[in-house]
Structure formats: C-alpha cells, structure tokens
Amino acid sequence: MAGGATTYLLDDDPQSGVVAASGAAGEASTPGALQDAIAAVDGSVVQVRTAGGLGSGVVTAPRGLIITNEHVAGSRGDEVMVITADDRRVPATVVASDASRDLAVLRPKGSVGQGVQIAPEPDAALRPGDQVFAIGSPFGLQGTVTVGVVSAVARRGEGGAPMIQTDAPINPGNSGGGLFDLRGRLVGVPTSINSPVPGNVGIGFAVTADEVRRILGSVN
Asked: What is the C-alpha separation between 131 and 149, in angstroms, rounded?
C-alpha cells in the first residue's frame, strides 16, 4: 500500500429470537439511538477461543448459528470454545468456512443467547457517512464497543471480495465480531485493518452482510 501501509488480519489475541433497535438506516443519530442499538445486540456478541488464541463471533437469527472469521475459528470440523456475554462456556463446531471471504459458521452445543438480525438489503443499504459501531473482544476485553462511520461500501479487499471500510476502531481480538447499524442490525464482520503498524489507525475492513447471508445459507 502507498505510504508503507500494510493490511493486517485481526489475528487472535494470545494474551488474553431476533433483536433489533429502533431507527432507520442512514438517519442522523438521535439522542439514545446509539445506546439503544448497543443494548439490543451486545448480548449476542461472543468470544471465540481456540488453542491459538481468541477472537469474536456474533449469534445470528433465526437458527442461533454463530458467524465469525475463518482465521479465528479454522476449517470445517474444527472445535472451539464460545464464551457468551453472560460468561458461560459453550463448545461449538465449525460447520462451514470460506477462506477466500474469511468467514466461518459455528454451531454451538448449547444456548448462547438471542440472535441478531442481518441487514437484508444489498450492501446493507449503507452509504458513506452512516454511523456504525463494532462490538468484540479486542485484546481479550469482551464486549468492547467502538463507534465510527462508513468510509466506503464495496471496497475490494486483497482477495477481490467486497468489503466495508470504516473508521470505527477495530483491533486484534475484534476479528469475527459484529459491525452494526443504528437499527441494531448486523451489517458486517470486522476482519482486517490497513496500518503502517499492527494497530488501529482508523482504516478497518469488514466482510459484508451479503457474504454473511450467503455462507449461512449454505449450512443445513
């Protein structure tokens, strides 16, 4: 990248039904809208632990499957441990994975909480300037919320897949967590950052909701 910037996957950190909020896509934030949206979805964001470290995941409606990154959870058939928002440990199996889109689907072996709605519109009806927020476990800090705006929609990633660019701060451990709009809908899954150093500088990328729906639809 120009200026020495490098794309970093948000690697696991070795140290450490349907819910939706009110509001409409593209609306300016109203008092309490952000807080309401966060409250509606934060219980659906989980921590995903493997032998190599940790990342994040999101419970999706209506089947309770968990979406995360392939580089967090691994390949089909792998076993992981899910830590729920209320601190319960639930084992889960990878039932689908796509390395080219950096997505994986987990089937938990127990209750993991309510699932969130996935935005159904193409590109989640996002436009540059729309406010979004991310929830994940950066550096192992489960339930961390960061806020920003959409910088670009359908920006091409290194593999050519469309990505959402956002300045919502995302860091190692945010991998596989949720990027949400002010209606509390899942609009993307954070996967990588562009930075001259392995830390956030306000240029992050998330796999689109379109790709999330596609891989979830492949699971029986």
From this structure: 4
